[in-house]
Amino acid sequence: MEPPKVIQADGQKSQKSNRQKGKSRRPKNSRIQKRPMIHPPISSPYAGADHPKVVYISSKTPFVSAVKRVRKLLSLIEKRSVGKVDLIHRKDGDKQKLEASEMEGPSQREKEPEEVLLKGTNRVIEKVLGLALFFQGQEDLNVRLRTGTVGVVDDIVMVAKPSDATEGHQKEEEKESPETQVRKISMLEVAITLK
Question: Coil, strand or helix: which one is 51?
Fold first, then answer.
């Protein structure tokens, strides 16, 4: 019997060094400064169905506050979908609307339901999953999970001024090093709709 193949271990080391060659080098006297994530402004809870209702979850968001926010948005969605119907006092307004909606058939009424989105990235995914599990246990709600990745931008900041002896070498590195870098992070999105 032969001893275990040492060549295979050396092959792994060479693969590792190949991976490091592909990375962009940054100067030794620099550090990475993370930027906050960019997302669109949060729409008004009273906006129509064409505006998405998003609740961004952070590591500091309390569980109960997130539940109350989602419940409030869902109640406003339900209120908006029912609308104001007055069949007694108005003679032609709401009765005609009701009859017209019955004439349109099921295609108009069976639109995709309006949803509330919970979004979280990286460390917060566990909290978002806990919220999804909580809402899945409630009988009046449907819950769907979507996963993905998001690109975030980090700045490369110079920490200290280089010494005179290595100034020429440092200038070459500065020319080659990027000022920003993009990294990918995990994202979880939970869509909650009324049944």
Answer: coil
